[in-house]
Specification:
Distance between the termini: 34 Å
Number of helices: 12
Strand order of the largest sheet: 14-13-12-11-7-10-9-8-15
Structural class: alpha/beta
Shape: globular
CATH superfamily of the largest domain: Dihydrodipicolinate Reductase, domain 2
Radius of gyration: 21 Å
CATH topology of the largest domain: Dihydrodipicolinate Reductase, domain 2
CATH architecture of the largest domain: 2-Layer Sandwich
Order of helices and strands: EHEHEHEHEHEHEHHEEEEEEEHHHHE
Number of strands: 15
Helix content: 25-40%
Number of domains: 2
Largest sheet: 9 strands, mixed
Oligomer: single chain
CATH class of the largest domain: Alpha Beta
């Protein structure tokens, strides 16, 4: 670091013609931390997008060549590019001693995951995995309640990511976006499970050791398209817990991007399902007893917010500049603290691969008609 501000670079300016620009979201959130960081460089294969984002960052330089970008003096980078280059670009930065915050998933193949783990292990720079949904206020509230023993011993969790994203398959000029390329082929990038699995594993403080997965043929809902969709994964963890994850970005349905559930020996939690629903809990130490007759009732989760997440309730509107509520704000706060050596990265490379690699192993399971596949632990060096 030079001076008080960390020099940041953004890899992937984003295509403003297809949904929101992910790069712009990180530029906005870094402006919130302007006393600690500033964006000095933008890299994108599209020169117009790179220049637009550089101007938006106010004073940043635009690049289309990754090597020149990494050699421009940046001290930390945000990798916000298509899935298939996340690992490659993270490795390139780590090898130069540049800190990395990588968008999800961490890697698209087992070989890429091994390369990333090796590079992070050798580098003196910080690698942090940017699973933003794990930073939802709701998830943090349930995490702190779990740590306080309110659910007893958790033994089951669910995560779902259901979002009809077919409109993002094509750019304005009709060319295929990376999402369109991915969904137009047989699966090859793994199941995009980190938004579902990551928060579930955070609540359980556990990792997956075995996964079984099934899916449907995409042609059911997208005529002429090859590949699979509606991925359903059933997993066993190192701690003997069970986790169920469903990922579907193709089915025509009302938007309901994230759903989570947690079951413990003394309590339950379920997030909202839409149509006026809201997140809810039942706690054995406070609520009605659970019986087949005169059944227990759900109670409002947010009634516990003031007790457990008062810090989350006090942040200002500027913390919502990242695009997903306050998720990017808390994530960047953790990343900056890790760079300064004040704490370990909240989601280090091993944890990031815990969230990612079960989705890669799921492809092997589907090829074997749902047979269980073992998930490697990257805390142990893999060959």
């Amino acid at each position: 670091m030079r001076g008080n501000q960390i020099k940041f670079g953004i890899i992937g300016a984003g295509n403003t013609g297809v949904g929101s620009s992910r790069g712009d979201g990180f530029i906005r959130i870094l402006k919130v931390f302007s006393d600690q960081a500033r964006v000095t460089a933008i890299c994108d294969i599209n020169p117009e997008n790179a220049q637009r984002a550089a101007e938006y960052a106010e004073g940043a330089k635009a690049f289309t060549d990754l090597g020149r970008f990494l050699d421009s003096g940046v001290e930390a980078v945000v990798v916000a590019t298509p899935v298939k280059v996340h690992s490659e670009q993270s490795v390139a930065a780590l090898e130069r001693g540049i800190h990395v915050l990588s968008d999800v998933p961490a890697a698209h193949t087992m070989e890429a995951a091994k390369a990333l783990a090796g590079a992070a292990r050798k580098s003196k720079a910080v690698y942090m995995f940017g699973e933003n949904i794990r930073y939802l206020d709701e998830i943090e509230l349930v995490k702190r309640m779990t740590a306080d023993g309110r659910f007893g011993e958790p033994y089951y969790a669910e995560g779902e990511y259901l979002h009809d994203c077919k409109d993002l398959w094509q750019a304005a000029d009709g060319s295929a976006t990376w999402r369109g390329e991915q969904h137009g082929k047989a699966p090859g990038y793994g199941v995009y499970c980190t938004h579902s699995l990551g928060p579930a594993l955070y609540l359980l403080d556990d990792r997956v050791v075995q996964v079984s997965a099934l899916a449907n043929q995409q042609s059911l809902v997208a005529s002429g398209r090859k590949g699979l969709f509606n991925f359903t994964m059933l997993m066993r963890t190192a701690g003997g817990r069970v986790v169920k994850v469903r990922v579907d970005t193709v089915s025509p349905r009302p938007h309901g991007a994230s759903y989570f559930a947690l079951q413990g020996t003394h309590g339950s939690y379920e997030s909202q399902r839409g149509f006026g629903d809201e997140p809810k809990v039942w706690l054995a130490d406070e609520h009605e007893e659970s019986h087949v007759f005169n059944s227990a009732r759900w109670h409002r989760l947010w009634d516990y917010a003031e007790r457990y997440i008062p810090d989350r309730l006090r942040v200002g509107e500027e913390a919502r500049q990242g695009g997903h509520g306050t998720c990017e704000y808390w994530m960047m706060k953790d990343f900056l603290a890790a760079i300064r050596g004040e704490q370990p990265p909240a989601i280090d490379v091993c944890r990031g691969l815990d969230y990612t690699v079960p989705g890669i192993c799921a492809l092997e399971s589907m090829e074997k008609a749902g047979a269980a596949v073992q998930v490697p632990d990257f805390r142990v060096e893999t060959k």
